[in-house]
Amino acid sequence: MGPFGSFKVPIVNGLIYAVLYYVLTLAGIYLIAFIVDALAPSFGAQKDMISSLKVVVYSYTAVWVAGIFQILPMLAILSILGLYSLYLLYLGLNIVKGSPSDKVVGYTVVVVVITIVVYFIIGAIVGAIALGGLMMSGMTGF
Questions:
Q1: Which of 81, 85, 99, 106 has its CA at a distance of 20 to 30 angstroms from the CA of residue 72?
Q2: What DSSP designation does 2 have?
């Protein structure tokens, strides 16, 4: 039960949502790595796509692992452990990408903002495709 109530989603729509979200999340990781690599010269870092992909994947692994706590509502508060990803991103941009210490905080903030925007767009796309038909059919479910 969420803050706005709850509703039942048909199994087919739920599966479409899950698969689509998974695929677009993987594409989002690659897009974020591409953006990290494109921004590298602006922050004095090395332009190398492989190292950008390493930084993004390694840093967001903590979020994915902490997401397992969302399965049980009683443990959902432990998802805050995913914030460790911010520290991993900071370290990765400094060590792996070679960003100077005075520019790494700005680089980290820009990457986090871009990540929020990318995942917001992914969520909107997946929601419109997988759950859009439910809202049009007049399903209230509350």
A1: 85
A2: B
